[in-house]
Design goal:
- It is a single chain.
- The chain is α/β, with parallel strands linked by helices and about 475 residues long.
- It folds into four domains: about 100 residues, Rossmann fold; about 60 residues, no CATH class; about 110 residues, Cobalt-precorrin-4 Transmethylase, domain 1, CATH 3.40.1010; about 130 residues, Methyltransferase, Cobalt-precorrin-4 Transmethylase, Domain 2, CATH 3.30.950.10.
- It contains 15 helices and 18 strands.
- The strands form four sheets. It has a six-stranded mixed beta sheet with strand order 13-14-17-15-16-18, with helices on one face.
- Strand 6 and strand 7 form a beta hairpin.
- Helix 11 crosses helix 12.
- It is globular, with a radius of gyration of 30 Å.
- The termini are far apart.
């Protein structure tokens, strides 16, 4: 370990910045957030940097560096771009026992700036000792994505509670259990949802009763169209904190792999004409698990409120008094269209788009066929593989031109994605015998626009 990681208190203390370029400004912004008073020495000081210095209660000296600039300084930073001048600063600072950082010259540094994830009062720093700052920034970005913003208000609340917890929980093991409970409880998600009164009531219950309350919650989360890289940030975070995951058949294995390793996984997916778990059973299971104090992630392909029966589950949870949150996902239609290179709307040929269910109750389906004939309207049928021939037949029978472009997108956004492009009249006959669900049918002149787009995905295009 080349450097010992420490947190330095610079509040109301002078920090010297030698130089006034971008590197100096970036460090000035960071130091000012920590409450430091800035002393900038440079022959020219841009107005934005001067404003930061003035706001810190510091001072600007428009001249060359002198050793006396180090008086009362706890940290010196060389960002002048002049090697000889920065070396002089490093030597002066080290002789006086002052921490010094020289930009891009690790050999002259007694202190280095790490990449920082700020969830004040929680801070996470990632440092390579100055030898690989680009990789440090990459690691910071990954942690930023994983760590919810709710940790900041949770930390502030913990600081406020510290004295009260020490007074009311006399034994150290009890306090330790309380802090562990707080970090893993629903309090953070309540704070994120601006439900502060509920969060405080939960904490007060824990302190008053001496027993940590068990509070379940349900997260109704959209898993997106299949590619795990298309998960929303919130969905990825919740996958890491849920106790149990109830997932649909259309949730890809790669998405499910993002769940916490010790989380219980229950498949409640329903294949066409094969409902091994009824919707009512799913509703009751969600309520039962939440009442048992579990954090339940209800994971649905695409967006949970588009042909996913999410609305039915919300109604049941609300009626049972179970707290829940809804996290939208990229819909299957959006994912399929983007990865197939088909614009759902286009100024030349489509002003609107309509989503419909292709999962028909019987072959004599009742859809508003007459409303679907508008030439400047794109149609997207979900769950359309088993009923493709019937949908195409009905559209033609009700007056849609048989030559209207149509496309079937199988396994959208996944490596096995396949796109078949034809016409309403010929599409069903052109499908490969190995066509796989899930599949979306897109009908409209926008499909023809795909010919003009260069697309990287493997395709099966037919005229």
């Amino acid at each position: 370990m080349r450097y010992l990681p420490l947190c330095l208190d610079v509040e109301a203390k002078y920090c010297l910045l030698l130089g006034a370029g971008n590197a100096a400004r970036q460090r000035a912004e960071l130091l000012s957030r920590a409450g430091a008073r800035l002393r900038v020495v440079a022959t020219e000081v841009p107005a934005p940097l001067e404003a930061i210095v003035q706001a810190s209660g510091g001072e600007c000296h428009r001249r060359h560096y002198r050793e006396e600039d180090l008086e009362q300084v706890v940290l010196a930073i060389g960002a002048s771009g002049d090697n000889a001048l920065d070396q002089c600063l490093a030597a002066d600072a080290q002789r006086r026992g002052i921490l010094v950082n020289i930009v891009d010259q690790a050999s002259l540094c007694s202190a280095v700036f790490p990449a920082i994830v700020d969830r004040s009062p929680f801070l996470i720093s990632i440092s390579s000792g100055g030898v690989a700052p680009g990789i440090s920034r990459h690691l910071r970005a990954r942690i930023e994505n994983w760590l919810p913003q709710s940790w900041a208000p949770l930390g502030e609340l913990a600081a406020e509670l510290r004295g009260q917890v020490r007074q009311r929980l006399k034994l150290a093991p009890a306090r330790r259990r309380f802090w562990e409970w707080l970090a893993n409880s629903a309090v953070a998600s309540l704070l994120t949802a601006d439900r502060h009164e509920e969060a405080r009531a939960l904490i007060e219950s824990a302190l008053r009763e001496g027993e940590l309350p068990v509070r379940g919650e349900v997260f109704l989360v959209g898993a997106g169209p299949g590619d795990p890289e298309l998960l929303t940030l919130r969905a990825a975070q919740l996958l890491q904190c849920a106790d149990i995951v109830l997932y649909d058949r259309l949730v890809s294995a790669d998405v499910l792999d993002r769940a916490r390793r010790d989380a219980e996984r229950i498949c409640v997916g329903k294949a066409p004409n094969s409902h091994t778990v009824s919707q009512e059973q799913i509703n009751q299971l969600l309520i039962k698990l939440a009442r048992a104090g579990r954090r339940v992630l209800r994971l649905k392909g695409g967006n949970p409120l588009i042909f996913g029966r999410g609305g039915e589950e919300i109604e049941q949870l609300a009626a049972a008094g179970i707290p829940f949150q809804i996290v939208p996902g990229i819909s299957a239609a959006e994912g399929a269209a983007c990865h197939a290179g088909i614009p759902l709307t286009h100024r030349d040929c489509a002003d609107s788009v309509r989503f419909l269910s292709g999962h028909l109750r019987d072959v004599h389906c009742e859809l508003p066929w007459a409303q679907l004939l508008e030439p400047r309207q794109s149609l997207v049928f979900y769950m359309a593989l088993g009923t493709l021939e019937e949908i195409c037949r009905q559209l033609i029978a009700h007056g849609m031109p048989a030559e209207r472009p149509a496309a079937l997108v199988e396994c959208a956004t996944l490596p096995e994605q396949r796109v078949t492009v034809a016409t309403l009249q010929s599409l069903a006959a052109q499908l490969a015998p190995t066509a796989l669900p899930p599949a979306l049918l897109i009908v409209g002149e926008v499909v023809a626009k795909r010919r003009a787009l260069a697309w990287r995905h493997q395709e099966h295009q037919l005229s």
